[in-house]
């Protein structure tokens, strides 16, 4: 017996992932689009006459976003001017393909397109960043840079708002990740449907209650073209754990994703908890909660050959860096010769003379909020020295400094880098 | 001296060769390694564990001297350690309050014979008597028809629990009627996650019921840090985010008349197990219906598996999660109008338009876009449940918090729920939202719904 659509009683083709309802395609499209329309209305996302930039990456979320925004703009007379804004992170093989998809979108919906790239904004591409920092904390770089890139591109285009395709799964993952990492400030902000209302350009998420599987279902049946692989640098991201958990949860109870968002919305922070205060960066004038915005800190780190400057405890890294500089200056003055590249107790911090524990996590350093030891990369033997993650300083005080203990004995290329027990 | 490796083999070697010392006294050979790298010798570890317990109670001042507290004992390792801490405190004369132990018998849900049930309960009685505390016995099904006695009225409801003073007095608390009622309700709940959540909430209700009947104002439970971190994540996954701060704080004041205290929340499971091993504390393994549930169908098991897996690779996971929940609070209790009729936590359903709850309602409403088809589907449903049932279900739903709504979703006949829950849902006061909905066409408001006077 053929299944009947729950709404119109016609022939059904779909079981909706979000609710498990049996529906026909038309009713599904209608329900999908109208739920987003309700999110727009309830969150009061737009006012008529605004220029809105759609953050377009070429993936399924942004393709469907471009489509749905065009449809709803017409159907419900939002009165918006829509523009496509795309960011080129410089990841070969991944980003250039997805940018082609964005160009197709531009033609399909007739929307103007602007592409901003990391190369022109910062002078670094993700490929070169990953070469410096390895595969562990690269997502932090990409995320921070991309957010600024989107805002800068939007300011160039003089738009009033940015919309992004963050869906319910993304928000649920963010909530879980922030609970796991103890990031109370982000935990409070991440469930808001519009963020950044004070100061910078507001960013809205019309897909906040839309399931990822629904989006795929919609794109599939409407034959929307999108680029669908994972970023090649993402497999070690911490977010992957939260994502796996959410996927398992969804299998047991599909409503769990919305339930997590509801939980996130119901959280209430104690009044005496210290929250970051919003100011502007003293160097670039961008919005920041510290004196220097994260992007400036990271850029300085990259340019000076200390890529960990933006990761973990910035003030410690900076202190170590300053001490190192002072010592270099003293040595240069005293001995009047060039810096050596191999010493037994210290290594220089400029460019490529970094030594590491051979990838076995020997430095035992605890990053930021107490994460696992540094895994510099699993098969470091095959890479060059400059690929190593951390730089070294002999002074104590946690962070990367603990490397100094085992580093005396270990070089890159040694397959098993066990410390010499007798020499404790 | 800092160790570069955390492998067990390396630690063992280090202990053997004397490279690793107790971090406290730096003298004796360590026998326990807790947290990441903290090695303790036996004496120092015991001092550490006891100190954690006592300072948790002392610093927070949740229990005042000469108070009578109720201590929940399940037979598991954490509550056995809790009893041992209390016993040691009493021996040393440092225990400033009096303790009565309560044990909830949940064997009605498992198919064991009456004789086996009696034996298990007997074991509990023996252990508690060894510790030297008076014992109250009750069972999970007692919560099915609990009635809160009105002030001044003599309660006609059956007693929640029985005192046990000697071993011979233990006859099975099994009340077959109530047990069947409970089993029927559990079978009607559609999903396993709903069942486990319901059992947990019911267990809480039993504790509160016993406390209220016997006049206790404090209930002490043995939640470790590990259990709390799993609890937090499960609450988030089940839509109970508003209860996270209550579920983890040392003094849980949401019920008003009874406070739940969690003195071992600073110790994680490994430390409790080490303590039990060093002090030869016995725990009883009692069969439970949750033993047959698996991480592929139970949210709590999945979450526990997830957290324990993360903890292996990132040892600071559990402390991070608990510390996050410490920073969470809640609105003023007095200003919160209503409590959920099932779990007695403040309701979290009075949310604005832009919220997940409204999004879910819109989703359901959109299914009935066509007026003609709605009456068709209603006609199909009417054979299943009457108008009366539907009204009762709507009333019940409105009186529950978001999380409990999920638990009860799919339950056809809400009258199967415990008596006190059904009563509360029928006699609750209407929330302002519902009043507004009833008279909305007569209110001359602006769009925001503000009344003209405000």
TrEMBL record, chain A:
Give GO terms for biological process: protein urmylation; tRNA wobble position uridine thiolation
Q: Which residues form the tRNA(Ile)-lysidine/2-thiocytidine synthase N-terminal domain?
A: 52-232
Look up the EC number in the record and give it: 2.7.7.-
> Do you know which InterPro entries this protein is assigned to?
CTU1-like_ATP-bd (IPR056369), CTU1_C (IPR032442), Ncs6/Tuc1/Ctu1 (IPR000541), Rossmann-like_a/b/a_fold (IPR014729), TilS/TtcA_N (IPR011063), UPF0021_CS (IPR020554)
Q: Keyword tRNA-binding, does the record have it?
A: yes
Q: What class of enzyme is it?
A: transferase
Q: In which pathway does it act?
A: tRNA modification; 5-methoxycarbonylmethyl-2-thiouridine-tRNA biosynthesis
Q: Name one GO cellular component term.
A: cytosolic tRNA wobble base thiouridylase complex
Q: Indicate whether Lipid metabolism appears among the record's keywords.
A: no
Q: Where in the cell is it found?
A: Cytoplasm
Its function, per the record, reads: Plays a central role in 2-thiolation of mcm(5)S(2)U at tRNA wobble positions of tRNA(Lys), tRNA(Glu) and tRNA(Gln). Directly binds tRNAs and probably acts by catalyzing adenylation of tRNAs, an intermediate required for 2-thiolation. It is unclear whether it acts as a sulfurtransferase that transfers sulfur from thiocarboxylated URM1 onto the uridine of tRNAs at wobble position.
Name listed for the protein in its UniProt record? Cytoplasmic tRNA 2-thiolation protein 1
């Amino acid at each position: 017996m053929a299944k009947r659509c729950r709404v119109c009683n016609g022939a059904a083709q779909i079981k909706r992932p979000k609710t498990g309802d049996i529906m026909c395609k038309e009713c599904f499209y209608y329900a999908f689009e109208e739920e987003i329309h309700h999110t727009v209305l309830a969150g009061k996302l737009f006012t008529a006459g605004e220029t809105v930039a759609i953050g377009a990456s070429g993936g399924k979320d942004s393709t469907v976003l471009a489509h749905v925004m065009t449809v709803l703009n017409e159907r419900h007379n939002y009165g918006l001017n829509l523009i496509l804004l795309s960011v080129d992170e410089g990841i070969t093989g991944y980003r250039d393909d997805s940018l082609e998809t964005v160009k197709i979108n531009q033609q399909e919906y007739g929307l103007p397109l602007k592409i901003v790239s990391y190369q022109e904004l910062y002078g670094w591409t993700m490929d070169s960043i990953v070469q410096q920092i390895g595969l562990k904390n690269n997502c932090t770089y990409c995320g921070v840079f991309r957010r600024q890139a989107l805002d800068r591109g939007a300011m160039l285009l003089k738009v009033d708002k940015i919309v992004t395709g963050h869906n319910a799964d993304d928000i649920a993952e963010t909530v879980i990740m922030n609970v796991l990492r103890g990031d109370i400030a982000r935990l409070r902000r991440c469930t808001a449907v519009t963020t950044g209302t004070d100061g910078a350009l507001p960013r809205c998420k019309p897909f906040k209650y839309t399931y990822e599987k629904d989006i795929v279902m919609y794109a599939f049946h409407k034959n929307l073209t999108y680029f669908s692989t994972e970023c090649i640098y993402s497999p070690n991201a911490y977010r992957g754990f939260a994502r796996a958990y959410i996927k398992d949860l969804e299998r047991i109870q599909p409503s769990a994703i919305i339930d997590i968002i509801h939980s996130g919305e119901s959280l209430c922070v104690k009044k005496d908890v210290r929250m970051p205060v919003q100011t502007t960066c003293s160097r670039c004038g961008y919005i920041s909660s510290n004196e220097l915005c994260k992007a400036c800190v990271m850029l300085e780190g990259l340019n000076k050959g200390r890529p960990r400057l933006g990761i973990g405890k910035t003030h410690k890294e900076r202190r170590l860096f300053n001490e190192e500089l002072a010592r270099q200056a003293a040595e240069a003055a005293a001995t009047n010769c060039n810096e050596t590249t191999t010493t037994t107790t210290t290594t220089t911090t400029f460019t490529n003379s970094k030594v590491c524990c051979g990838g076995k996590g020997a430095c035992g350093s605890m990053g930021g909020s107490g994460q696992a030891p540094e895994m510099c990369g699993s098969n470091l033997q095959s890479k060059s020295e400059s690929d190593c993650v951390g730089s070294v300083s002999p002074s104590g005080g946690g962070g990367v400094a603990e490397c100094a203990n085992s580093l005396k004995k270990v070089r890159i290329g040694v397959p098993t880098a066990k410390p010499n027990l007798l020499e404790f | 001296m800092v160790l570069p490796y955390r492998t067990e083999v390396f630690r063992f070697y280090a202990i053997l060769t004397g490279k690793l010392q107790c971090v406290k006294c730096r003298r004796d050979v360590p026998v326990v390694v807790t947290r990441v790298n903290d090695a303790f010798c036996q004496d120092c570890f015991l001092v550490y564990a006891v100190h954690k317990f006592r300072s948790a109670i002392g610093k927070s001042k949740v229990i005042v001297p000469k108070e009578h507290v109720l201590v929940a004992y399940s037979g598991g390792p954490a509550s056995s350690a809790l009893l041992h801490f209390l016993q040691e405190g009493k021996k040393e004369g440092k225990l400033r309050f009096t303790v009565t132990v309560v044990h909830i018998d949940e064997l009605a849900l498992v198919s064991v014979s009456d004789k086996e049930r009696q034996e298990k309960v007997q074991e509990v009685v023996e252990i508690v008597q060894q510790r030297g505390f008076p014992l109250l016995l009750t069972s999970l099904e007692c919560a099915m028809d609990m009635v809160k006695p009105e002030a001044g009225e003599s309660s006609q409801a059956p007693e929640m629990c029985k005192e046990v003073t000697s071993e011979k007095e233990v006859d099975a608390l099994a009340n077959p009627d109530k047990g069947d009622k409970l089993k029927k309700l559990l079978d009607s709940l559609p999903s396993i996650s709903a069942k486990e959540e319901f059992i947990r909430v019911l267990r809480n209700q039993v504790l509160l019921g016993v406390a209220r009947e016997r006049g206790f104002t404090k209930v002490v439970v043995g939640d470790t840090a590990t259990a709390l971190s799993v609890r937090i994540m499960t609450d988030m996954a089940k839509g109970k985010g508003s209860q996270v701060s209550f579920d983890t704080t040392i003094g849980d004041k949401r019920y008003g008349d009874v406070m739940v205290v969690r003195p071992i929340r600073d110790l994680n499971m490994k430390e409790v197990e080490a303590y039990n091993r060093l002090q030869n504390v016995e725990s009883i393994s009692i069969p439970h219906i949750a033993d047959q549930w698996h991480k592929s169908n139970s949210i709590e098991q999945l979450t526990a598996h997830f957290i324990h897996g993360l903890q292996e690779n990132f040892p600071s996971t559990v402390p991070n999660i608990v510390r996050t929940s410490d920073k969470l609070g809640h609105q003023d209790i007095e200003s919160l109008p209503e409590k959920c009729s099932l779990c007695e936590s403040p309701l979290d359903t009075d949310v604005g338009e832009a919220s997940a709850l409204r999004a879910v309602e819109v989703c359901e409403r959109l299914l009935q876009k066509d007026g003609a088809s709605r009456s068709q589907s209603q006609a199909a449903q009417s054979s299943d449940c009457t108008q009366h049932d539907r009204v009762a279900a709507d009333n019940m739903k409105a009186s529950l918090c978001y999380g409990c709504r999920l638990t009860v979703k799919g339950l056809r006949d809400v009258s199967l729920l415990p008596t006190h829950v059904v009563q509360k849902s029928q006699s609750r006061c209407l929330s302002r939202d519902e009043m507004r909905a009833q008279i909305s066409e007569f209110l001359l408001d602006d769009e925001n719904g503000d009344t003209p006077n405000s």
